[in-house]
Design a protein that fits this description.
- This protein is α/β, with parallel strands linked by helices.
- The protein has one domain: NAD(P)-binding Rossmann-like Domain (Rossmann fold, 3-Layer(aba) Sandwich).
- Helices cover about 45% and strands about 15% of the residues.
- It contains seven helices and seven strands.
- It has a seven-stranded parallel sheet with strand order 3-2-1-4-5-6-7, with helices on both faces.
- Helix 3 packs parallel to helix 4 and helix 4 runs parallel beside helix 5.
- The longest helix is centred in the middle third of the chain and has 29 residues.
- The protein binds nicotinamide-adenine-dinucleotide and beta-L-rhamnopyranose (RM4).
- Beta-L-rhamnopyranose binds next to loops.
Length: about 250
């Protein structure tokens, strides 16, 4: 069964990792997909090609989510290409692991801007378009297990993920009257570019694996199903919710 037939899905930071898996998962479920990406054209173009090979339409729009104008531009280009926006997956994020006491100001400010301001303006731009269309929509933000628990080298990052989780709760209220649902996924530790260096430390990686009841760290594709579900009409009465997708890591005290 295809869950997103005829829908237009937008995904930020979608040339790699979880965003890419979500974009491809949406296409597998019948959606046309617009992806935002920040850096190199190659991976973005290969994501577009993968979606087209599935028989769906795709565009890639370059832009830094930290700039509020990027959100207007991304939504505008998606509407130009596909005529509407049904789903926004706000996924782009960074986590430059760093100790707290000597954390550089610019690292804090950039992390806040990309992860939190970026999500805010993307969600707002998508919601403005959805309200104009008048037939509701679904917004899924990629928050994190780190919205709920801390990290020694993530003091700048975890507040942004808590912020994104909170943003979905407040926008669920603000947008419910327009039939727009807002939910977050809270991934555990997923093997992607964002933590490649951090998990190159074998001891750290083994520790994270050992904390996970399902016995392995996640793959980006582990997020595709939960994101597609929340995006789809299968989740028609789900809003303001947060779905942990962490192999059980969060509940594993002892
Ligand atoms: P990733 O590095 O593969 O993906 C992040 C993507 O965001 C990249 O494609 C990157 O180019 C893009 N990006 C970064 N800054 C951007 C900007 N300013 N504008 C536009 N795009 C930008 O890593 P990932 O793990 O797939 O991360 C995706 C999201 O998942 C992030 O928000 C991250 O916080 C969240 N997350 C990841 C994990 C994990 O363990 N990997 C766990 C919980 C949450
Ligand atoms: C996640 C979580 C993971 C970490 C990534 C970067 O939110 O904290 O453990 O590897 O961020």
């Amino acid at each position: 069964m295809k869950l997103l037939e005829g829908k237009t899905v937008l995904v930020t930071g979608a040339s790699t990792g979880i965003g890419r898996a979500a974009a491809i998962g949406a296409a597998q479920h019948g959606a046309d997909v617009a992806i935002n990406y920040a850096h190199s054209d190659g991976p973005a173009q290969s994501c577009v090609a993968e979606i087209e090979a599935l028989g769906q339409r795709a565009i890639a729009v370059k832009g830094d989510v930290a700039d509020p104008q990027t959100a207007q531009d991304f939504v505008g280009k998606a509407v130009e290409a596909f005529g509407k926006v049904d789903v926004m997956v706000s996924n782009a994020g960074i986590c430059p692991f760093h100790a707290f006491l000597d954390m550089p100001v610019d690292v804090v400010e950039r992390t806040f801007k990309v992860n939190l301001h970026g999500a805010y303006f993307m969600v707002q731009a998508a919601a403005q378009q959805m309200v104009k269309q008048g037939h509701g929509g679904s917004i899924v933000a990629v928050s994190s297990i780190s919205a709920l628990v801390g990290g020694e080298y993530q003091t700048h990052y975890t507040p942004t993920k808590a912020g994104v989780h909170s943003l979905m709760q407040s926008t669920a209220i603000a947008l419910g009257k327009h039939g727009i649902r807002c939910n977050s996924v809270l991934p555990g530790t997923i093997l992607t570019e964002i933590n490649k260096d951090d998990l190159a430390d074998v001891e750290k990686r083994q520790y994270m694996e050992a904390r996970t009841p399902l016995g392995r760290l996640g793959q980006p594709e582990d997020l595709a199903g939960p994101i597609v579900f929340l995006a789809s009409d299968m989740a028609a009465y789900v809003t303001g919710a947060a779905l942990l997708v962490d192999g059980g890591m969060y509940v594993n005290l002892q």
